Amino acid sequence: MGSPVRYTFGLTTVAATKPLGNFPLPDPVHSGSAAGLAVQVFSDDFHTLASGWTLTGVGTPTAALGADHGGAVVLTTTNVISDSALLTLAGKAFQFVSGQKAWGCFRVKLGDASACSMLVGLADSAAPDNGLYFSKAAGSTTINLVAEVATAQTTVAAAVATASTSYMELAWFYNGSELQVFVDGALSTRVTPTLPTAVLTPVLQLVTSAAAAKTLTVDFAVVSDELAR
User: Fold this and answer.
1) How do strand 186-191 and strand 53-56 relate by DSSP bridges?
2) Would you state the pLDDT for residue 26?
Protein backbone atom coordinates (compact mmCIF):
# COMPACT_ATOMS: atom_id res chain seq x y z
CA MET A 1 0.00 0.00 0.00
CA GLY A 2 1.36 3.39 -0.97
CA SER A 3 1.25 6.62 0.96
CA PRO A 4 -2.12 8.42 1.20
CA VAL A 5 -2.77 11.69 -0.58
CA ARG A 6 -2.94 14.42 2.07
CA TYR A 7 -5.34 17.31 1.59
CA THR A 8 -4.33 19.22 4.69
CA PHE A 9 -6.76 22.09 4.07
CA GLY A 10 -9.72 19.81 3.34
CA LEU A 11 -11.49 18.61 0.21
CA THR A 12 -14.62 20.13 -1.29
CA THR A 13 -16.84 19.05 -4.18
CA VAL A 14 -18.64 22.34 -4.90
CA ALA A 15 -17.77 25.81 -6.14
CA ALA A 16 -16.50 28.40 -3.66
CA THR A 17 -19.59 30.54 -4.31
CA LYS A 18 -21.93 27.85 -3.01
CA PRO A 19 -23.15 27.82 0.62
CA LEU A 20 -20.86 24.90 1.47
CA GLY A 21 -18.11 25.98 -0.90
CA ASN A 22 -15.58 26.48 1.91
CA PHE A 23 -16.71 23.52 3.97
CA PRO A 24 -13.51 21.40 4.18
CA LEU A 25 -15.27 18.10 3.46
CA PRO A 26 -17.29 16.80 0.47
CA ASP A 27 -20.72 18.42 0.38
CA PRO A 28 -23.03 15.87 2.06
CA VAL A 29 -26.29 17.17 0.55
CA HIS A 30 -25.46 18.09 -3.08
CA SER A 31 -23.78 16.09 -5.85
CA GLY A 32 -22.06 19.08 -7.43
CA SER A 33 -22.11 22.76 -8.15
CA ALA A 34 -24.54 22.74 -11.07
CA ALA A 35 -26.80 19.71 -10.71
CA GLY A 36 -29.74 20.02 -8.37
CA LEU A 37 -29.03 16.56 -7.03
CA ALA A 38 -28.01 15.07 -3.73
CA VAL A 39 -26.59 11.65 -2.98
CA GLN A 40 -27.92 9.89 0.09
CA VAL A 41 -26.16 6.85 1.51
CA PHE A 42 -27.07 4.15 3.99
CA SER A 43 -24.41 1.67 5.02
CA ASP A 44 -24.16 -0.80 7.87
CA ASP A 45 -21.06 -2.88 8.60
CA PHE A 46 -22.85 -4.45 11.57
CA HIS A 47 -20.35 -3.63 14.30
CA THR A 48 -23.52 -3.16 16.34
CA LEU A 49 -27.13 -3.96 15.52
CA ALA A 50 -28.58 -0.50 15.06
CA SER A 51 -31.97 0.24 16.58
CA GLY A 52 -33.25 1.26 13.13
CA TRP A 53 -33.49 -2.40 12.13
CA THR A 54 -36.70 -4.27 13.03
CA LEU A 55 -36.66 -8.06 13.41
CA THR A 56 -39.83 -9.93 12.47
CA GLY A 57 -40.63 -13.34 11.04
CA VAL A 58 -42.46 -16.60 11.58
CA GLY A 59 -41.50 -18.59 14.69
CA THR A 60 -38.99 -16.98 17.04
CA PRO A 61 -36.17 -15.74 14.81
CA THR A 62 -33.01 -14.13 16.13
CA ALA A 63 -30.58 -11.53 14.83
CA ALA A 64 -27.21 -11.62 16.58
CA LEU A 65 -23.83 -10.06 15.91
CA GLY A 66 -21.36 -12.53 14.43
CA ALA A 67 -17.70 -12.95 15.29
CA ASP A 68 -16.44 -11.86 11.85
CA HIS A 69 -13.54 -9.43 11.68
CA GLY A 70 -15.20 -6.15 10.74
CA GLY A 71 -18.66 -7.07 11.98
CA ALA A 72 -21.62 -9.10 10.70
CA VAL A 73 -25.19 -9.94 11.65
CA VAL A 74 -26.50 -13.50 11.69
CA LEU A 75 -30.20 -14.12 11.04
CA THR A 76 -31.40 -17.48 12.38
CA THR A 77 -34.79 -19.09 11.87
CA THR A 78 -36.41 -21.61 14.16
CA ASN A 79 -36.73 -25.23 13.07
CA VAL A 80 -40.18 -25.51 11.49
CA ILE A 81 -40.69 -25.48 7.71
CA SER A 82 -41.56 -21.94 6.51
CA ASP A 83 -40.22 -20.30 9.67
CA SER A 84 -38.52 -17.04 8.73
CA ALA A 85 -36.24 -14.25 9.91
CA LEU A 86 -36.57 -10.75 8.49
CA LEU A 87 -34.65 -7.54 9.16
CA THR A 88 -36.26 -4.37 7.80
CA LEU A 89 -34.76 -0.90 8.13
CA ALA A 90 -37.20 1.58 9.62
CA GLY A 91 -38.50 4.27 7.30
CA LYS A 92 -38.40 4.42 3.51
CA ALA A 93 -36.04 6.73 1.67
CA PHE A 94 -34.75 5.11 -1.54
CA GLN A 95 -36.39 5.37 -4.94
CA PHE A 96 -35.53 4.51 -8.54
CA VAL A 97 -36.00 7.58 -10.74
CA SER A 98 -35.24 7.66 -14.44
CA GLY A 99 -32.09 9.70 -15.07
CA GLN A 100 -30.87 9.42 -11.47
CA LYS A 101 -28.24 6.95 -10.28
CA ALA A 102 -28.66 4.30 -7.58
CA TRP A 103 -26.43 1.70 -5.97
CA GLY A 104 -26.91 -1.41 -3.86
CA CYS A 105 -24.25 -3.77 -2.47
CA PHE A 106 -24.66 -6.67 -0.02
CA ARG A 107 -22.12 -9.25 1.21
CA VAL A 108 -23.91 -12.36 2.43
CA LYS A 109 -23.52 -16.09 3.05
CA LEU A 110 -25.98 -18.88 3.76
CA GLY A 111 -25.65 -21.63 6.32
CA ASP A 112 -27.39 -23.94 3.82
CA ALA A 113 -27.17 -23.12 0.12
CA SER A 114 -30.34 -24.99 -0.85
CA ALA A 115 -32.93 -25.68 1.87
CA CYS A 116 -34.04 -22.08 2.35
CA SER A 117 -35.17 -19.04 0.40
CA MET A 118 -33.46 -15.65 0.57
CA LEU A 119 -34.35 -12.06 -0.28
CA VAL A 120 -31.73 -9.30 0.01
CA GLY A 121 -32.18 -5.79 -1.36
CA LEU A 122 -34.76 -3.01 -1.37
CA ALA A 123 -38.50 -3.44 -0.81
CA ASP A 124 -41.50 -1.45 0.38
CA SER A 125 -42.58 -3.88 3.12
CA ALA A 126 -41.93 -7.25 4.71
CA ALA A 127 -44.21 -8.87 2.12
CA PRO A 128 -43.25 -6.55 -0.70
CA ASP A 129 -45.46 -5.15 -3.41
CA ASN A 130 -42.47 -3.30 -4.87
CA GLY A 131 -38.74 -3.79 -4.76
CA LEU A 132 -35.44 -4.69 -6.37
CA TYR A 133 -33.77 -7.60 -4.64
CA PHE A 134 -31.55 -10.63 -5.00
CA SER A 135 -33.74 -13.69 -4.56
CA LYS A 136 -33.13 -17.42 -4.11
CA ALA A 137 -35.98 -19.92 -4.08
CA ALA A 138 -36.20 -22.87 -1.70
CA GLY A 139 -34.57 -26.01 -3.08
CA SER A 140 -32.56 -23.97 -5.59
CA THR A 141 -29.01 -22.63 -5.47
CA THR A 142 -29.67 -20.05 -8.21
CA ILE A 143 -29.71 -16.38 -7.22
CA ASN A 144 -31.69 -14.03 -9.48
CA LEU A 145 -32.18 -10.28 -9.39
CA VAL A 146 -35.91 -9.58 -9.26
CA ALA A 147 -37.80 -6.34 -9.84
CA GLU A 148 -41.27 -6.20 -8.32
CA VAL A 149 -43.66 -3.50 -9.53
CA ALA A 150 -47.15 -3.38 -8.00
CA THR A 151 -46.88 -7.08 -7.01
CA ALA A 152 -45.76 -8.16 -10.51
CA GLN A 153 -42.39 -9.89 -10.19
CA THR A 154 -39.94 -9.96 -13.09
CA THR A 155 -36.56 -11.66 -13.11
CA VAL A 156 -34.46 -8.87 -14.61
CA ALA A 157 -31.18 -10.80 -14.29
CA ALA A 158 -31.32 -14.59 -14.12
CA ALA A 159 -28.71 -16.83 -12.52
CA VAL A 160 -26.45 -13.97 -11.51
CA ALA A 161 -24.79 -16.17 -8.85
CA THR A 162 -24.84 -19.62 -7.30
CA ALA A 163 -25.79 -19.63 -3.64
CA SER A 164 -22.90 -20.46 -1.37
CA THR A 165 -22.02 -21.08 2.24
CA SER A 166 -19.05 -18.76 1.64
CA TYR A 167 -19.47 -15.01 1.34
CA MET A 168 -20.95 -13.61 -1.88
CA GLU A 169 -20.94 -9.92 -2.76
CA LEU A 170 -24.10 -9.08 -4.71
CA ALA A 171 -24.48 -5.58 -6.13
CA TRP A 172 -26.16 -3.35 -8.68
CA PHE A 173 -25.53 0.05 -10.21
CA TYR A 174 -28.38 1.90 -11.93
CA ASN A 175 -27.06 4.66 -14.18
CA GLY A 176 -30.48 6.22 -14.68
CA SER A 177 -31.55 3.87 -17.48
CA GLU A 178 -29.38 0.75 -17.48
CA LEU A 179 -28.92 -1.62 -14.55
CA GLN A 180 -25.47 -3.18 -14.15
CA VAL A 181 -25.31 -6.29 -11.95
CA PHE A 182 -22.13 -7.37 -10.16
CA VAL A 183 -21.07 -10.55 -8.36
CA ASP A 184 -17.94 -10.49 -6.20
CA GLY A 185 -16.91 -7.22 -7.80
CA ALA A 186 -17.17 -8.44 -11.40
CA LEU A 187 -19.79 -7.23 -13.88
CA SER A 188 -22.26 -10.06 -14.45
CA THR A 189 -24.82 -8.54 -16.80
CA ARG A 190 -26.41 -5.34 -18.09
CA VAL A 191 -30.16 -4.91 -18.47
CA THR A 192 -32.65 -2.11 -19.06
CA PRO A 193 -35.48 -3.12 -16.73
CA THR A 194 -38.75 -1.68 -15.55
CA LEU A 195 -38.11 -0.70 -11.95
CA PRO A 196 -40.54 0.22 -9.17
CA THR A 197 -41.17 3.90 -8.47
CA ALA A 198 -42.32 3.33 -4.87
CA VAL A 199 -40.09 4.50 -2.03
CA LEU A 200 -38.14 1.53 -0.62
CA THR A 201 -36.00 0.42 2.31
CA PRO A 202 -33.29 -2.25 2.84
CA VAL A 203 -34.65 -5.72 3.61
CA LEU A 204 -32.81 -8.94 4.60
CA GLN A 205 -34.91 -12.11 4.72
CA LEU A 206 -34.41 -15.86 5.17
CA VAL A 207 -37.09 -18.59 5.11
CA THR A 208 -36.34 -22.24 5.94
CA SER A 209 -37.74 -24.97 3.70
CA ALA A 210 -36.68 -27.79 6.01
CA ALA A 211 -37.49 -28.74 9.59
CA ALA A 212 -34.21 -27.24 10.73
CA ALA A 213 -32.96 -23.82 11.73
CA LYS A 214 -31.17 -21.94 8.92
CA THR A 215 -28.85 -18.93 8.95
CA LEU A 216 -28.12 -15.92 6.77
CA THR A 217 -25.00 -13.92 7.64
CA VAL A 218 -24.73 -10.36 6.32
CA ASP A 219 -21.29 -8.73 6.44
CA PHE A 220 -22.46 -5.37 5.15
CA ALA A 221 -25.33 -3.62 3.40
CA VAL A 222 -24.91 -0.43 1.35
CA VAL A 223 -27.60 1.43 -0.59
CA SER A 224 -27.43 4.88 -2.14
CA ASP A 225 -29.27 7.00 -4.67
CA GLU A 226 -29.42 10.43 -6.22
CA LEU A 227 -32.38 12.61 -5.40
CA ALA A 228 -33.45 15.98 -6.75
CA ARG A 229 -33.17 18.96 -4.44
Assistant:
1) unpaired
2) 85
